[in-house]
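The data are set out underneath:

___
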Amino acid sequence: MTAGKIILENADYLVLDKAAGVLSQKDKSGAPAVADLLQKIIPMPFLAPVHRLDRNTSGLLLLAKNSVAAKFFTEALQAGEVHRTYLAIVKGDPGSKGTIDAPLAKDEEANEVSVSSDGKAAITHFERIELFPASALVKVELETGRSHQIRAHFAHIRCALIGDKKYAKKPWSEIFSRPALHATQLHFPDPKTGKILQAHAPMPEDMVKLKAKLKG
């Protein structure tokens, strides 16, 4: 198993185009996470993800290579200085653009998130990029970073991600092997200079094929 492709790297950080199916962080399954797989190739004394991507979400993941950088990035993330943009393929048509502002609560035992007045604030912005018969490609930007936020929010507006076994219904949950979600752009400040850096990862091959299939 490969962790993915390294996009940017210096002494303080590493930006990975994470492969779908790889954990961002270790969980109860015992499966190797991104840092474990990278350490086998390039041993590093410290390597920790700054944020998370769901196991089956592909795309850009920022990892800190030392504790000072980890603290800097954690504070930058909390301050809203780390910006993430995703591509998602959803059922139906969510509209040309919009904002989903709906608090989310997580059932830890079921590992499932739902919209709830008792949940934590969650805000998702989207713009439709392309419309297909009965489905659409959308660009998504997160204002908050809750677990499963994009997946739960689009399910809430009845435009669940295609391939999402947890939040979509048949047949949409069955026509793709994973939730059709990819982290395509990442903006973040450099720990030493403060300069805003940008990384880009194009849509992966499996989603390109899905898009072609949906276009007919």
